[in-house]
């Protein structure tokens, strides 16, 4: 069974053990799953599951499905998401990030994937682009008519959103994905999780 991790080794005479372990990003794990035949990706913005379920063959590999199955889930936010269980670890990944990563490579740190036509569920490769957070917010204002004030922070969160954010973190979601889901900053998510904000909402 593959273990989706990278070990950074120091081969100096004084060091014989790995000195650092870096977990792979969900997008990188997804690309490896596509190459292994678990998923199939289309430039038209669709992701199918090709293998899966509870059945294994004698080599303990997932059996091929009788026919490809669309594997994306539509979220209330408008985004589509896929879920994977790899080596006992559960991953939640936005479809647009998965599709971009498969066809175009890793998403540079600090940048995000923008939907050019403003439709969050339209994940055709031609409709995706890499932008900064500032450019993403400006695009929302120009194309969708969303003001920065409406997108910024606590004004659009309700008490049930705060409870849900904390629940998602306990289930293993990373702060970046939660921030993306609710259109708030990673810092705000971390403050909510730590109880520095919305202190009146039980942890």
In short:
By secondary structure, this protein is an alpha+beta fold. 32% of the residues lie in helices and 27% in strands. A hairpin with a 5-residue loop joins strand 6 and strand 7.
Written account of the structure:
This protein has 203 residues and is α+β, with helices and mostly antiparallel strands. It has two domains: 5-151, Homing Intron 3 (I-Ppo) Encoded Endonuclease, Chain A (Alpha-Beta Complex), CATH 3.90.75.20; 155-203. The protein has seven helices and ten strands. It has a three-stranded antiparallel β-sheet with strand order 3-4-5. Strands 6-7-8 form a three-stranded antiparallel β-sheet. Strand 3 and strand 4 form a beta hairpin. Helix 1 (26-35) crosses helix 2 (95-104) and helix 6 crosses helix 7 (186-194). The longest helix has 12 residues, at 133-144. The radius of gyration is 19 Å and the shape is globular. Mean pLDDT is 77; it is low at 1-22, 54-60 and 147-154.
């Amino acid at each position: 069974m593959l273990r989706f991790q990278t070990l950074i080794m120091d081969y100096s005479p004084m060091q014989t053990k790995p000195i650092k372990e870096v977990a792979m990003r969900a997008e990188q794990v997804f690309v490896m799953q596509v190459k292994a035949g678990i998923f199939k990706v289309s430039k038209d913005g669709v992701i199918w599951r090709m293998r899966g379920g509870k059945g294994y063959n004698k080599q303990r590999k997932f059996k091929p499905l009788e026919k490809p199955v669309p594997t994306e889930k539509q979220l209330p936010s408008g985004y589509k998401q896929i879920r994977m269980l790899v080596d006992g670890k559960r991953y939640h990944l936005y479809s647009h990030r998965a599709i971009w990563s498969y066809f175009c490579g890793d998403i540079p740190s600090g940048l995000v994937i923008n939907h050019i036509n403003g439709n969050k569920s339209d994940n055709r490769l031609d409709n995706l682009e890499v932008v900064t957070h500032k450019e993403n917010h400006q695009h929302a204002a120009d194309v969708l008519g969303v003001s920065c004030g409406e997108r910024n922070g606590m004004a659009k969160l309700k008490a049930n959103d705060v409870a849900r954010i904390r629940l998602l973190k306990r289930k293993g979601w990373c702060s970046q994905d939660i921030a993306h889901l609710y259109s708030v900053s990673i810092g705000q998510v971390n403050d909510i999780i730590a109880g520095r904000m919305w202190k009146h909402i039980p942890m």
